[in-house]
Amino acid sequence: MRLVFLGPPGAGKGTQAARLQEKYRIPQLSTGDMLRAAVKAATPIGLDAKVIMDAGGLVPDEIVVGIVADRICEPDAKSGFILDGFPRTVNQAEALARMLRARNMDLDAVIELKVDEAALLARIEQRVKDSIAGGAAVRADDNPEAFKARLDAYHAQTAPVSAYYAEKGSLKTIDGMAPVDAVSEAIAKALGG
């Protein structure tokens, strides 16, 4: 099962991806985690990314695509993977399609979690309360100002990716405002099981 998860920050992508990861025994691949791992491992792509990240720049598409290409070839991704945080742009979606085609692979589905944006802020606030109550660290970007900036970036860059996949016929839109178990059931149904 090869999947892409789309949706604005706070939509529940991580929660649902974790459930699918367990169900299908496939890794959830976060580009942020992959970038940090490549930098730590001092791979050639990681070293290129480190220079850019250390200077405060955004890692260009070709480096991100290279890291994803390397990662999906690892043994644990042989049966599939869940991409979370990639592709973020239509250019990245097109690069992913080329990369998969070159490996005789295709995506099984693109899952988009649709949510009410006003409710997202409440979710972020609740996540902060839950983290504090559980003694966990609060994410630096879990505040209203950072959330708005992340949401604006999502609309500007990532939302067009949904239209790209809808045009290809691979987009499955799920109501992300439903209870967690209901969202999981809707995803399972969209995936044919």
Identify the CATH class.
Alpha Beta
Task: Output mean pLDDT.
Answer: 87
Structural class: alpha/beta
What order do the helices and strands follow?
EHEHHHEHEHHEH
**Largest sheet descriptor:** 5 strands, parallel
Strand order of the largest sheet: 2-3-1-4-5
Radius of gyration: 17 Å
Gap from first CA to last CA: 12 Å
What is the count of distinct domains?
1
Q: Can you tell me the CATH topology? A: Rossmann fold
CATH architecture: 3-Layer(aba) Sandwich
Helix content: 55-70%
CATH homologous superfamily designation: P-loop containing nucleotide triphosphate hydrolases
How many beta strands in the DSSP annotation? 5
Assign an overall shape.
globular
Structure description:
The chain starts with a strand and ends with a helix. It is globular, with a radius of gyration of 17 Å. Helix 3 (44-54) packs antiparallel against helix 4 (61-71). It has a 5-stranded parallel beta sheet, with helices on both faces. By secondary structure, it is α/β, with parallel strands linked by helices. Helix content is 58%, strand content 12%. It has one domain (2-186): P-loop containing nucleotide triphosphate hydrolases (Rossmann fold), CATH 3.40.50.
